Amino acid sequence: MKITNKLNLPAGFVKACSPEKHNAQGCLSATTLIMGIKQILLMERHWDELEDDVSDRLWAIWGQAVHSLMESEGENDFTEQKMAYKVKGVTVTGTIDSYDMKHGIIFDYKTASVNKIKFKDFKDWYLQGMIYAWLLSKNKFPVTKCRFIALLKDFSKTEAMRDYQYPKEPVYVFEFPVTLQALFKIEMFINNKVNEYRRCIKLDDNSIPPCTPEERWEKPPKFAVMKKGLKKAVRLFDEKNAAEQLAEEKSAGHYIEHRPGESIRCQSYCLCSRFCNFYCDKSKTIAYETTEEKAAA
Q: Choosing a second label site near 105 at 20 to 30 A (CA), which of 73, 97, 214, 285?
């Protein structure tokens, strides 16, 4: 991966922010497994062509710094321990931040935004924690619980007093029990993901099925009832018919604005999106539809 330096930041900062390839040949890490298969394979195949600026990697290096500070040996703990288990010729790996051997508790340290906590967006943490628990159990280490300790990088005391949904402290703990049923379900998830990976590895880039809407962090399209002279929508609808009905009921000067769905991960967080035919084709379609709507208005 090529790391650019648009702000001419110090060489030491650039070096600290420069990532190594995450997966060795024939391996899939816990954090990789929760991505879409298309993203996984495009990252593997185009690693040397990927490009990111050092300024965009600020939170990544902050996360690394937090890990370095938090991961200290405890009386009953091991830290930064890499686990591995082979599934159908693919080695599933995971590096555990901290594991309390006496109580069977996995600890993982995160940096996160307040919105993740407000919207309870924890599925990726749950999957990651359960994959770690599965790896530990396969290596004869019992697990009773996963605890994610999140440091909130954009916490505001003022907002915490104003908004009842806002977290009240700059540190948030997300935890869940690890049961035999949960381990069985995560094993099925891992097996299915490995099967799909092995199937798609034989396909060319454009033939790999796109990531699912959930994996793309997709926001669905909306139909906005707008009033001339106002920038904010009167109301948003999922269905065009409902929007048209309200526009007709309102006074003259109301019209419908189609707001295409957005794949947030593709647009802002996937470094291989320019190699993805699904994303490129969808971007062209959205751009064309937007131009047509503006011309019609």
A: 214
Q: For residues 133 and 269, what is the distance between their CA atoms, to the nearest angstrom?
A: 27
pTM value?
Answer: 0.84
Domains of the chain: 2-207 (3.90.320.10), 218-296 (no CATH)
Q: Measured between alpha carbons, how far is 119 from 222 in angstroms, rounded to an integer?
A: 20
pLDDT tens-digit profile of 103-133? 999 999 999 999 999 999 999 999 999 999 9
In angstroms, the CA 207 to CA 243 distance is 37
Residue with tokens 């994610």: 148
Encoded tokens for 269: 């967080």
Residues 29-79 have pLDDT tens digits of: 999 999 999 999 999 999 999 999 988 887 777 777 666 666 655 555 777
Compute CA distances 114 → 24, 89, 117, 134, 268, whole Å.
Answer: 33, 40, 5, 29, 18
